[in-house]
Design goal:
Number of strands of chain B: 10
Number of strands of chain A: 9
Radius of gyration of chain B: 24 Å
Largest interface: A-B, 104 and 112 residues
Distance between the termini of chain A: 41 Å
Oligomer: heterodimer
Order of helices and strands of chain A: HHHHHHEEHEEEEEEEHHHHHH
Number of helices of chain A: 13
Largest sheet of chain B: 10 strands, mixed
Helix content of chain B: 40-55%
Radius of gyration of chain A: 27 Å
Shape of chain A: globular
Chain lengths: ~350, ~525
């Protein structure tokens, strides 16, 4: 969760993308901003959103950032205010952010229309029993809502709560229930190797919570714990790991192609008996695969002769994808290919407006 | 030689609603309405295309819940009653509108449509519409996709892998049982994808699935062809992305076809408009007004003063819109072909119930579109996704991004402050079943029956439709009651199985009510 990281992430995006993000975040005047200004504004807006839930983190910002935050959010702050004053100002301006809004769309209207019915009393007899409000089992579950929002719900068995309180002893009365979020993107989490973490104080009885996030495409894991004075931190339960979705196309260009085993046998039945096939067909020997990448690819295009593929694709002007993307990336800019293709991914992404379904009928 | 391909995919789905315990069920009407307005008209269109030897390809996903309802003798006989009452109502409408030259031809039209639907249902399909879908698949014109057992929204069930495994396994086994061969394509409910679900599909022999645009455009590494060629997940499942342009043309409020002023207005139904005593015999027996399907007005404009529907105008618009759609796809494909080293594929998935039920002229539009593509141009060819993969077996490898086709593209529709409560209970239910399956590996007799019924109840509770309805506010009472009912039944079964005392009479009752998936095996939920 650090600022430089978010910044780096934003820097690879084009100005147009950033502008789109900025408009989603309702940043005033984003049309007139330069790229670096946009990045600044987005970083702050994201932080602001997240801060609404974890005001304690405000203290980590510099005074300059706080001033800018105030400006962006229309909080009147004079230059000579101290950091402490600024913090107070912001804290009082922070309101609970809105939860996801309901809004129906064309596609959803059609779906709702399937279940169309006038407003009438129910004829469906309700079962006499109702589901319990919670279960006497200890668990914390993380469910991502979208790239910037995650839902957490929890149950704590009464015996586990008792045990926790016993452990904390007299300090348990001052203990604060908290959710500690670990950023475990691309690590096998062992409890100590998270990239970063942040705490969200909770009311145990609330049993669920939405937590806005600063940046997409992360893996999180949560500890539900009691925090007591003197640095005591008693973990009651650890959640599942959850991944938040990507919010824009990946900048990583690494073209590899594959043929699945069934098609390989179909396309080249003659080769079926030869030993080379067995090597290529990963499905038959999954245990020998070492890395994920190798498992993913029955064979690498580079290993097949160009003629072999040309036979499958007589019309394809087969030029292997840029041979060493790694080298080029190290330089910083991909070198132009013989023929430059338009970026179809970018095109599709641009035309795509969240399922158009988000445009209401009226 | 075609320059590129168009794959039209219709996703047909309804949740499992069957209430023999009530004499008249409002919710069962969802099925009866779309049978009359969507499924039968679509089949009529497709069969006429076959008769006229028009070459076409269409992909349709029929969910296991819908398939089970279409094949259910109890619901079939209720549908027959329903359509016969509608014909009776249409006859009364003929008399009522005799002196009204605007409405009389429309009453005639509905009378003819209902009679045709009844005739097709009874005589041509022998009460089972699946026969017709199977025949079209057999002819190679239509490819039917499998789907999850009860349309569970997999990204939010994935915390418990046995829950997702059960949905997929039961869905695929059901497909095999009904259609007699292995499924190649799988419709992910609500296009809900998360990295990892592809591996489970692959285990069951699935070759491809379809995602919303950003599921593919945000794949890693970046796909070279955007959504205009499939990508392979590392597991080997091919993923096709929805084309944003063709979905916009149908869905957009600005340029979308179904909102055209000449088309029929969905919300003006005589069930709500005419005299109560007159309509009483044809609505719910408790006097609740319902949609009858007889609608006399056109959209007219952004006004409440609706004008009379004129079928000829609407028909002409359907033709114009089909031509426009084809023209745009042609231009799009021409362009894509010029910048791609392979033939592009444009994948256009829609809710099947859009056609006919909401967009009354939809089946006509589809008919025009297919005929025009077959006869008036050479740029586009219709294709099924299997055929495309057979022709283009080498594709880029990339991991798609988590996504859905719901509002805002992720999980929000099914997870927000209105419906979040269901997940605590669904998780508890899935865990309970998993524990039961582990502790009873070799159940027999009554215990076996109870365990299988517990699995059915879990699946029925997991349907994404309930969370959807709770969110949209329409029918939320019914939806939350259904969620609760199945989970309570599951909990009771679980207590009885663990306690070793099973109430057989009660078990038989719920077996006959929630009778989906007779071949289910609780061990699939391990």
């Amino acid at each position: 969760m650090n600022r430089a990281e978010i910044q780096r992430e934003l820097e690879v995006r084009t100005r147009n993308d950033l502008s789109k993000v900025a408009s989603e975040l309702k940043i005033v005047g984003h049309h007139r901003m330069r790229k670096h200004e946009l990045i600044e504004a987005i970083v702050l807006a994201r932080m602001y959103e997240a801060l609404a839930h974890t005001p304690g983190m405000l203290r980590r910002l510099t005074r300059k950032d706080l001033v800018q935050l105030c400006e962006q959010n229309g909080i009147r702050a004079r230059e000579r205010l101290t950091k402490a004053d600024l913090l107070k100002k912001i804290a009082s301006a922070l309101k609970k952010p809105e939860l996801p809004r309901k809004r129906s769309s064309t596609q959803e209207k059609v779906k709702t229309a399937k279940f169309h019915r006038p407003t009438v009393p129910q004829d469906f007899v309700q079962d006499p029993d109702d589901l319990p409000a919670w279960y006497d089992e200890t668990r914390v579950i993380l469910l991502p809502v979208d790239p910037y929002l995650i839902h957490v719900y929890w149950d704590v068995a009464s015996c586990d709560l008792e045990k926790a309180k016993r452990c904390l002893g007299r300090k348990s009365r001052q203990a604060q229930a908290t959710l500690r979020f670990y950023d475990i993107t691309n690590v096998i989490f062992d409890g100590t190797n998270a990239h970063s973490s942040f705490d969200v104080d909770i009311e145990l009885q609330a049993r669920s919570r939405y937590v806005p996030l600063w940046s997409p495409e992360k893996s999180y894991c949560v500890d539900l714990a009691l925090k007591a004075p003197g640095g005591l931190f008693y973990v009651i339960a650890r959640s599942n790991a959850a991944e938040t979705p990507r919010a824009w196309p990946s900048p990583k260009v690494d073209e590899r192609y594959m043929l699945v085993a069934e098609d390989y046998r179909r396309v080249e039945p003659a080769a079926q008996s030869s030993d080379s096939i067995k090597e290529n067909s990963w499905e038959e020997r999954p245990s020998e695969q070492t890395t994920k990448r190798e498992k993913a690819l029955p064979f690498e295009p580079a290993k097949i002769s160009a003629e072999k593929v040309a036979a499958i694709y007589p019309y394809r002007k087969w030029s292997l994808p840029p041979a060493k993307p790694e080298v080029q990336l190290a330089v910083g800019f991909p070198q132009p290919e013989e023929k430059t293709y338009p970026d179809l991914t970018e095109m599709s992404e641009r035309k795509f407006a969240f399922g158009v379904s988000s445009w209401s009928l009226e | 030689m075609a320059r590129g391909y168009l794959a039209i995919v219709l996703h047909a789905h309804l949740p499992y609603v069957r209430h023999p315990e009530y004499e008249d069920s409002l919710e069962e009407n969802w099925l009866y309405e779309v049978m009359t307005e969507t499924y039968i008209p679509l089949l009529v269109v497709l069969e006429s295309l076959v008769e006229d030897q028009v070459d076409f390809r269409l992909s349709i996903s029929l969910t296991p819940t819908l398939v089970s309802m279409l094949a259910d003798p109890f619901l079939q006989s209720r549908y027959l009653q329903r359509i016969e009452r509608l014909i009776e109502l249409a006859q009364r409408e003929l008399r009522r509108t005799e002196s009204e030259p605007d409405f009389h031809p429309l009453a005639l039209m509905y009378h003819r449509r209902f009679s045709q639907a009844r005739d097709a249902f009874l005589n041509r399909y022998d009460r089972n519409l699946l026969v017709a879908f199977k025949r079209l698949q057999h002819l190679g014109k239509v490819e039917i996709l499998a789907s999850a057992a009860t349309h569970g929204y997999l990204p939010l069930l994935s915390v418990d892998s046995s829950a997702v495994g059960g949905q997929i396994r039961v869905g695929i086994a059901h497909y095999q049982e009904v259609f007699g061969h292995e499924a190649h394509g799988f419709w992910l409910p609500e296009c809900g994808f998360y990295p990892g679900v592809d591996g489970l599909l692959r285990e069951h022999g699935i070759r491809y699935t379809i995602l919303e645009t950003h599921g593919v455009t945000r794949a890693e590494p970046r796909p070279r062809y955007g959504v205009y060629a499939p990508i392979y997940c590392p597991s080997g499942v091919a993923v096709f992305g929805r084309d944003p342009e063709s979905s916009k043309q149908v869905w957009s409020s600005i340029e979308g076809y179904p909102g055209d002023y000449d088309y029929r207005e969905f919300y003006r139904d005589i069930g709500h408009d005419v005299d109560f005593d007159y309509i009483k015999p044809y609505i719910h027996r408790d006097g609740i007004r319902i949609d009858t399907g007889i609608k006399y007005y056109r959209i007219t404009g952004k006004t409440d003063d609706k004008e009379v529907y004129i079928p000829e105008w609407a028909e002409r618009k359907a033709e114009i819109h089909a031509a426009n759609f084809m023209f745009n796809r042609g231009k799009q494909i021409e362009y894509l072909r010029s910048v791609m080293d392979r033939r592009p594929i444009v994948v256009a998935p829609y809710d099947a119930e859009l056609f006919g039920h909401w967009w009354f002229e939809g089946p006509r539009w589809l008919d025009y579109l297919i005929r025009k593509i077959a006869s008036e141009q050479e740029t586009i060819r219709l294709i099924t996704l299997s055929e495309y993969l057979a022709e283009h077996p080498v594709n880029q490898v990339a991991t798609p991004s988590a996504s859905s086709w719901g509002h805002k593209g992720f999980n929000e529709v099914w997870l927000n402050s209105s419906n979040e409560w269901v997940y605590r209970h669904l998780y508890q239910g899935a865990k309970a079943l998993e524990r039961l399956a582990k502790s009873h590996p070799e159940a027999r007799g009554l215990t076996l029956r109870a365990l299988n019924q517990a699995a059915r109840e879990l699946l029925l509770a997991q349907a994404s439709d309930w969370a959807f309805m709770i969110n949209s506010g329409a029918m939320d009472g019914y939806a939350s009651n259904r969620t609760k009912r199945h989970l309570l039944r599951l909990q009771k079964l679980s207590r009885e199985i663990n306690g070793g005392v099973i109430d057989e009479a009660w078990l038989s009752t719920i077996e006959s009510q929630d009778n989906i998936f007779p071949q289910i095996n609780y061990r699939w939920f391990l």
